[in-house]
Amino acid sequence: MFQSLSDKLSEAFKKFRNKGKLTPADVKAGMREIKLALLEADVNFKVVKDFVNSVTEKAVGEKVLESLVPSQQIVKIVNDELVALMGGENEKLVISPKPPTVVMMVGLQGSGKTTHSGKLAKMLKKQGKRPLLVACDVYRPAAIKQLQVVGESIGVPVFSVEGLSDPVKIAAQSLAAAAKGANDIVIIDTAGRLHIDEELMGELKNIKQAVSPTEILLVIDSMTGQDAVNVAQSFDELLDITGVVLTKLDGDTRGGAALSVRHITGKPIKFVGVGEKLDDLEPFHPDRMASRILGMGDVLSLIEKAQEAFDEKQAEELERKLREADFSLGDYLEQFKQIRKMGSLESIMAMIPGMKPGALKDAKIDEKAIDRTEAIILSMTPKERDDPSVINFPRKKRIAAGSGTSVEEVNRLLKQYEQTRQMMKQLTGKKKNKFMKRMPFSF
């Protein structure tokens, strides 16, 4: 996420280091590097110009120029301006005081509307809502079937009308279906085109008029960079969108869309898609995103992911076991399973402060290692899991054969487990905060 931009900004900040004092000339040289970094990230030129002018104005102030650590002051200013550029604070989905809340998902074909309609439905279902997905894309082959498959996988009903090809009527009828089924959220998956045309916009306007949506969310592919901003501007002018969902933010995104959309349209980014799974949707927090861009991690999001993945009772029970030196291989496996719920190892590592985006690009993170660990532990008997000291060479051979691994891998796992057990035994004597209680002990 924003790897190239992060690297270039880091290089730009080097211009300010190792200087006892800064001069206006130093600031100007550094700002030139920042400007180039943003332009290469496909950030809108007007946005770049306003951003650089604002940072420069604050950076040449007396407080910064006379500071003992001016480089830190510059980074803080850039961070604050990035946060302001992306909207300042997280803007939540507006929930109608009178159900149902109607959310129209709009965008060009291929932007990910159908998948992200499902992601949003799953997120809202976790929050205790009763969403209904509505299939209004009657043109794209298998679009309705795709939404039905998504809905079935997350346990959310999908409304469609067989034989009816008028998306406006389908959308209108979905409200009655929602009332009948006690659904308090209606998410309408609309059709898209390869480009913005009069027919598409006319249809979307008619749907808007028919259902009076609480939210109109524009789904745009962040990898299209500057084009994404142009699309957002066009949709906003014609539909008056209420927010944006940026997709594919986990890809080789240059950052142009995320840094430009709010400034150009005045409409907030509400959600970001950070992976292919239906769990990979996050609320957009400008301050956290700025922190990630500057390589300062995203501890709050990491904590939230951990709290979602880790059951508090399980964590307390595990803490008791650690305290009493009763940490088994079964407990060790459970921690790996909980880690998996938080997402890929790369996405977790990227949230850790100091771990800059791209730092792991050459590291070969074996996501299948957890699968092998699970296979090895499940190939053990209950006695072996509770007391690994009984695992002799013949048992190791049997476990390796049963898990499709090697004796060397079994030995490696046992060694890692013992090291973790010893380390956590030492840590249990120290005071831990709530975050540690919810974090995986196998880290």
Question: What can be said about this structure in brief?
Answer:
The chain is an alpha/beta fold and 443 residues long. The protein has helices spanning 3-13, 24-40, 45-59, 62-65, 70-85, 113-126, 143-154, 167-180, 198-211, 226-239, 256-265, 286-293, 299-309, 312-323, 329-341, 345-349, 369-378, 382-386, 393-403, 407-427, 434-438, and strands spanning 101-106, 131-135, 158-159, 185-189, 215-221, 243-247, 269-273, 281-283.
Q: Could you explain the architecture of this structure?
A:
There is one protein chain. Strand 5 (about 215-220), helix 10 and strand 6 (about 245) form a beta-alpha-beta unit. This protein has an eight-stranded mixed β-sheet, with helices on both faces. It is flat, with a radius of gyration of 26 Å. It has about 450 residues and is of the alpha/beta class. The chain has three domains: about 5-85, Up-down Bundle (Four Helix Bundle (Hemerythrin (Met), subunit A)); about 100-295, 3-Layer(aba) Sandwich (Rossmann fold), CATH 3.40.50; about 300-440, Signal recognition particle, SRP54 subunit, M-domain (434 Repressor (Amino-terminal Domain), Orthogonal Bundle). The chain is built from 21 helices and eight strands. The chain has helices spanning about 5-15, 25-40, 45-60, 60-65, 70-85, 115-125, 145-155, 165-180, 200-210, 225-240, 255-265, 285-295, 300-310, 310-325, 330-340, 345-350, 370-380, 380-385, 395-405, 405-425, 435-440; strands at about 100-105, 130-135, 160, 185-190, 215-220, 245, 270-275, 280-285. Helix 5 (about 70-85) packs across helix 12 (about 285-295) and helix 15 (about 330-340) packs antiparallel against helix 17 (about 370-380).
